[in-house]
Amino acid sequence: MSVRDHTQKIDLVETMKELWAQMGSLMATIVFMYTIFERFFPPHLREKLQAYTQKLTNHFNPYIQISFPEFSGERLKKSEAYTAIQTYLSANSSQRAKRLKAEVVNDSQTPLVLSMDDNEEITDEFHGIKLWWSANKVSNNPQRYNPFSYYGSSDEKRFYKLTFHKRHRDIVTMSYIKHVLDEGKDIEMRNRQLKLYTNNPSSGWYGYKQSKWSHIVFEHPATFETLAMDRRKKEDILKDLVKFKKGKDYYAKIGKAWKRGYLLYGPPGTGKSTMIAAIANFMNYDVYDLELTAVKDNTELRKLLIETPSKSITVIEDIDCSLDLTGQRKKKKEENEDEEQKDPMRRNEEESSKSSKVTLSGLLNFIDGIWSACGGERIIVFTTNYVEKLDPALIRRGRMDKHIEMSYCCYDAFKVLAKNYLDVESHHLFGAIGGLLEETDMSPADVAENLMPKSVDEDVEICLHKLIKALEEAKEEKARKKAEEEEEARLKEEKVKEESTQMEEKHKGKTGEDVKENGFH
Length: 521
Ligand SMILES: Nc1ncnc2c1ncn2[C@@H]1O[C@H](COP(=O)(O)OP(=O)(O)OP(=O)(O)O)[C@@H](O)[C@H]1O
Ligand SMILES: [Mg+2]
What we know:
Layout lengths: L2 H38 L2 H18 L2 E7 L1 E2 L4 E2 L1 H14 L6 E5 L7 E5 L4 E6 L2 E11 L16 E10 L3 H23 L3 E5 L13 E5 L13 H15 L2 H7 L4 E7 L6 H12 L2 E4 L8 H9 L5 E5 L2 H4 L5 H9 L7 H11 L5 H9 L1 H4 L4 E7 L7 H4 L6 E4 L5 H12 L7 H10 L4 H8 L8 H59 L3
Parallel strand pairs: 9-12, 11-14, 11-15, 12-13, 13-14
Antiparallel strand pairs: 1-8, 2-3, 4-5, 6-7, 7-8, 9-10
Helix pairs in contact: 3-4, 15-17, 16-18
This protein binds adenosine-5'-triphosphate (ATP) and magnesium ion (MG).
Magnesium ion binds next to helix 7.
């Protein structure tokens, strides 16, 4: 190697070293500048600077970004869109995102919800279009920025950012966002815990809690599968419910409020309340159990109903008693109770219930009126044991669109109960039971009670025999009652006959005397 070569090599190394040193100092300057920028520039200045840089880059940037803030409006309400997007992304991204956030959500059936963590980004596809979602946060309150705080500001503002190419602008704004929000809301609805609401007496409406409705988690296990009733009737109701659920456009087209009224009627223990629970589980709707006797007047009724949301079932059980159209059940109950033994609280409640001024017309106005059009997708259910005594105005079609009779246990219903309670689908005793059911009037509640094993020793055979015995007794009882009724009717008829002959004879005697007196003899 010549001296010249050697000198050249040293020069190159020197240059490299210099370059490296310069790069090092450049890096150090960037880091330094960034630290200064991060540490000492208050967020509002940083935001301004970012805005200018943004403007500059936007000019060349072919991508569009849309932000969805967590809180919106003047009162900073949690944005429904943000929640829906969060649910959508959680459902679609939990496998794809690398950093996830686990949150415990009270109102959900799956209490631990995984969603993408802050500053995480995932991609989504819609009709072949690629889109990017990122979860972001910024400081919400620059005034409270503390440059020396290790944790930064506590007022953080979260938002989701959607990025896509500008040539897909129309499809994203017109279809994709709607798709995300709809699907997110749908998942929310499916995952949420159903609730059972009951109305509070108006005396507590403006107190500490200020709520008209109290709720508990609704965990009734009834489903249409376990509901014992005629198979075809059940299928018919299911079809009706499905049609209603999918009927948004149809109702809009015919200009009718998106609501449906069901009247469930039948003797006690035939499954009216169970049916309501099955409907709630099937439709995934909350239940608003309206106790009319606790509502003072129509104004209160209005206030209560206004607060029921869409996708809910408003239930008025024993409508005949609540509106005092017949009052039979209440009277019966009242007769049985010893007035003296009632505690004062109870007596007070009953007294106030007697002064309830809710009227039939008030209720009807509401069912038909503006309320039914608020939000749509509402079901209203009335139940009664005495359908024949209800005011026809209350149950006419259009108001109560579907009248469902819950009747005594038939063979189809028994088979469902046998499957529920004993886990059997066929048995040699089924034939005998089917025959007996036709001859008796036993409610599904009574059949279920007989089928239920009372101890570990009671097997299927024993339980079915127990039911047969109960059915035979019921049959005898029915025959005895029928004979008694016939005897009573016969006696009544005889009495009427006797009375009419007596009347006739009396009449004859009287005319005879008249003739004598008048001397026509
Ligand atoms: N059709 C049915 N299918 C399944 N179980 C039923 C049925 N009918 C009654 N049962 C059983 O009987 C119990 C009482 O039934 P439910 O409360 O639904 O009757 P109801 O018709 O509402 O009576 P009431 O008129 O007294 O309010 C239920 O908890 C359920 O276990
Ligand atoms: Mg009931």
